[in-house]
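Final report, closing paragraph on structural work. Over the funding period we assembled a curated collection of sequence-structure pairs, and we close with a single example.
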Amino acid sequence: ERTLRQKLTPFFFLAVAIPIIIFAGLSMYRLERSIRASLDRQIAGNLNKADQCLDMVLDKYDTLLYDLCTDDGEISLVEEINRNQDGLEVNSNYLRRELSHICNRNSGIEGITVITAEGRTVYYDHLSASSVSSTWTSEVTAPAITKGAAYEGITEPVSSGKESVYMLRIARRLVDYEDIHKEVGTVVMSINEDLLTEALDAWDIAENYLVSGDLIISAPDNKDIGKTVDEIREDEYEYTSVVNERTGFTIYNRQSL
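Its predicted structure, as stored:
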């Protein structure tokens, strides 16, 4: 027959084990919450940094474009071209020289295209260092511009030698402040997508993608440009996003779990 001690032993172990199990469970829960909170802060900080860096980069090039589009001398040249007063392309050549100066003084600008109100195109292709022969700058079209600058991600690369160069286009209307409603023309600046990749760089912590609509327009690996967000989704990653107010594009953060 079992003694009283033998009968009480299981209850003793239960009395000791249950608090330990409860304490361990609470500790694990708190640890998971702490890790989750830390990860959320890291992701939020990463997205905020990427958003600010993207704005800083784009602000530089938008300022250059704004200065070009409001320069009285450039406006006069384009208006002369619109009036067909461009004998021997004197005005066009002046404009081409100015476009080449801007491209050559500012790294990252791969081309500038001026589309006049009368449909003429004047450009400078920095990749080929030409203003008379280009496989892409002469084909650039003016996007719809409602106010200020318009941003357009390009998912088809431009071939430059053995390289494939992806672009982001920034467009503004030429504005004659003596008559702001007059149609003068549009300027489209094409900048290298590498600038965006550097701005969005999350080092080894995570990966950031810039998305227009549902298409990726900037990515750590250029092979992902042109894909949809769903095409790059993998179960072992967590995805969060923030909208960049300047461009309307979405920054997607891919964080390893």
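The chain has a mean pLDDT of 89. The longest helix spans residues 4-69. We thank the funder for supporting this effort.
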